[in-house]
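Blinded run. Sample ID left blank on purpose so nobody reads anything into the name before looking at the predicted structure. Input follows.
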Amino acid sequence: MRIKQSFCYPMYLPAGGSLEELVKAAAEIGYAAIELWARPPEFEELMALAKRYGLAVASMIGHQSIVDGLNKRSNHDRIEAELRQSIDLAVQYGIPGLICFSGNRQPHQTEIEAIEAVADGLRRIAPYAEEKGVNLNIELLNSKVDHPGYQCDHTAWGVAVCERVNSPRVKLLYDIYHMQIMEGDVIRTIRDNLKWIGHFHTAGNPGRHDMDDTQELNYRGICRAIAATGCDLYVGHEFRTKGEPIEALRTAFDLCDVEA
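Blinded prediction complete.
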């Protein structure tokens, strides 16, 4: 089995280049899907281009924001409403997963209290996600380098949330770059927690750059291990390229285009 590769398009749009050129080139390289974050002004154009060139849209952000998220119960009404709208949009355009955020740690809130708060927030919207067939993927981010204070910064923390919600539509966005910084042991962690993973992101560490020989992760081995699980998940590239974006996407695709 080969993994399905996607890419977060805002990171690879060449300076002065057109969105259509990027989408066309990605399809020619062999990418299965494109990803976005917040809904951009060019959303309708992007959806049309993806359809024209045979790319799925793998993922988008479901609610705001990274720092002000589900661990604050006062946010639950807002986030439930935002997720309901995002789920409807995902159904309309065939987007299988929405990104969710724990938010940053709150003063005087224990880790268990925060886990319960995030789980309670997701439990409110999980039945609607189940009805519509859309995953809510809680993103695992590092709090050491890129997102100081972010709470869902270890796999076990995210798994604890998923276990409490106990919905087939509440999963984790396992970001390999972020989890390498926080805990390492990537392949074993993926194998042990695959039932709770709904999406993957990549980037080289250190630096969040290309997956080349200046960084410490063996992405060919990681992708082979993911393929060996037989899972039908997207592996989305989210690195800051040091060179020409489309060539960087080609190189990343070739590196990760492996079979079990």
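Unblinding after everyone has recorded impressions. The radius of gyration is 17 Å.
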